[in-house]
């Protein structure tokens, strides 16, 4: 199905809660030296770098961001043993989901299926809390256009969700999305830490001519992208507006026991499955394998109360 309406039917909406603290509520003054023009948001070192990359500037490899540190691997540099987060970045900016989102995407990290054409693309990175602690168990739901710029609204081609591993890392195998009227190349994603609000946003590609004319384009959402054989590799690190997970040995205060019910962690649930939790009935709306922290009341993206 070839989409006809663009993802931005009207003016760009005002930044939401996921846009980070300090967003203006009234008319923004003229951009200062520490803000993104037209947004009033402070510019971090990573934001300045990505804006320069978007403009096509030739920049040396800099340190201080996880994505750039990982990208140095192909240049013979050693990688740090653990991800670092010391750039002072605000939470990842939110964006509208557009008209082509579908719930109940399959659980998978590889969106390429038999018959899929296009330039191979891998996207990897980490998900951090605002205190720079990597977040395990974050639900990431991706969807995008195919090589011809069309979204599959009948099935789940180029759609899928996954969860970050114990180090907060994720990896996606897909293709470079095609272009369609009104939009530059982009990948949609929803991100939700267990029991936390959903961040809906989009990832962009550097050096795209349409970046300059797409009214939704946000330079802070640019991936770092490089060639890899016959395909491309992209990296992007999400920062969610949540506190990091307590480390080992940090007790819950006060200790609590989960309420009873038929829901259980470690079980594979599918759309339509019904469970009870804390005396309330819930219906599964998206396939997933349950885990502690994803109890039905905490994850409306997975469970609907009946």
From TrEMBL:
InterPro entries: CBM5/12 (IPR003610), CBM_sf_5/12 (IPR036573), Intradiol_dOase_C (IPR000627), Intradiol_dOase_core (IPR015889), Intradiol_RC_Dioxygenase (IPR050770), TAT_signal (IPR006311). Residues 1-34, 248-258 have a biased composition (Pro residues). PROSITE patterns: TAT (PS51318). It comes from the Bacteria. Residues 1-43, 72-113, 243-269 are annotated as: Disordered. Keywords: Dioxygenase, Hydrolase, Oxidoreductase. One of its GO terms (biological process) is carbohydrate metabolic process. One of its GO terms (molecular function) is ferric iron binding. The keyword Oxidoreductase applies. Belongs to the intradiol ring-cleavage dioxygenase family. This is Dioxygenase.
């Amino acid at each position: 199905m070839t989409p006809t309406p663009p993802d931005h039917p009207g003016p760009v909406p005002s930044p939401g809660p996921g846009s980070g603290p300090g967003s203006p509520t009234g008319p923004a003054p003229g951009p200062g030296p520490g803000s993104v023009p037209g947004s009033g948001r402070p510019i971090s070192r990573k934001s300045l770098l990505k804006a320069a990359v978007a403009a096509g500037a030739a920049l040396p490899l800099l340190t201080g961001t996880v994505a750039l540190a990982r990208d140095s691997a192909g240049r013979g540099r050693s990688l740090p043993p653990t991800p670092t987060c010391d750039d002072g970045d605000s939470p990842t900016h939110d964006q509208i989901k557009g008209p082509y989102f579908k719930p109940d995407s399959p659980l998978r990290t590889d969106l390429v299926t038999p018959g899929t054409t296009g330039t191979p693309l891998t996207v990897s990175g980490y998900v951090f809390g605002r205190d720079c602690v990597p977040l395990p168990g974050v639900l990431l739901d991706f969807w995008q256009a195919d090589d011809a710029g069309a979204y599959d609204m009948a099935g789940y081609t180029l759609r899928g969700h996954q969860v970050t591993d114990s180090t907060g890392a994720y990896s996606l195998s897909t293709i470079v999305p095609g272009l369609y009227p009104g939009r530059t190349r982009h990948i949609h994603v929803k991100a939700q830490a267990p029991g936390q609000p959903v961040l809906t946003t989009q990832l962009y590609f550097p050096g795209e001519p349409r970046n300059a004319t797409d009214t939704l384009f946000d330079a802070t959402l640019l991936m770092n992208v490089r060639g890899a054989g016959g395909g491309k590799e992209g990296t992007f690190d999400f920062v969610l507006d949540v506190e990091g997970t307590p480390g080992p040995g940090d007790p819950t205060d006060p200790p609590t026991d989960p309420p009873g019910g038929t829901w259980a962690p470690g079980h594979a649930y599918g759309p339509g499955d019904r469970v009870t939790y804390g005396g309330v009935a819930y219906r599964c709306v998206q396939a997933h394998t349950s885990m502690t922290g994803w109890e039905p009341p905490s994850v409306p993206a997975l469970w609907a109360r009946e």
